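Hi V.,

You were right to ask for the full record rather than a summary. Here it is.
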Amino acid sequence: MKIFLESFLSKGANGYHYIYKKYDDSVESFFLMSGYEPNNHYIDFIKNIGVGRFYDGLLIFFEVNGNDSLIKTSDRINEQFNTNIIIIGYDGTSSGYYCLKNSKQDNAIYWISSDDGQIGLVNHSFSDWLDKTTVELFDHKSYAGFKQIKNLDAILDVIEQRKKIIVKLEKYGKDLVKLPGREKVLLARYSKLWLNIEIKEQINIEKLTIRFRRTGNKYEDRNIQYLTIDISNLNINQATEFTGYIFDSYAVPFDKIICLYKPEIDLGSKNRSMFKEILDFL
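Predicted structure:
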């Protein structure tokens, strides 16, 4: 857990890591009363660091008790799939959960599929997995969204350039597909989009980021994705067709995809780092 701790302590929470709650020694007794006995590595983590959202939501640890908690989720999954595991969190998607075996002697971390209950080993050591996760998930560009802006004037100029661009979503696929060149991956998790982009005046930016929302399910308020395209070779007053792909974190049926393009960028939002045209100025 050393690498994780060093990274967490040096960078701080600041919203990139957001701690819901830290536990004291009584949490072990509570686990026992609830019929669960997680390994000491996990116990040390929730007592020294706590549970919450890490890496801007790419890793989420559940609270031990309460609504949508570890205990309630573990009880539900164990009953559904006839397992004996402890659900501790997930990766922000709906495809499954990170879990522990209900045994103090098993220090490994596992992943259980929410579709069929299949359990796979992630790492033989919870602590080792945390350290590797730090290397894999920490994103300096995303983290920049939580820091003080370096060059506000340059960002405001980018916004002015974005005002000269018209974006239209012509159509989209309702079925999820795999990314071109990555057909061997297990799951199809992307929607294909067909866009029409037109530049009305001379601009000085080479990238354009567009927001999209999937509607028609319980996740629609959160199911917003960003697509950045290269517009460096576009001609003025000439509409150009683009195809792109946006990830679906939830992989559930939806009614439609809406293009949310507007020139303005919410600079008070952590998601400002999703706009690649301003990354150098954050």
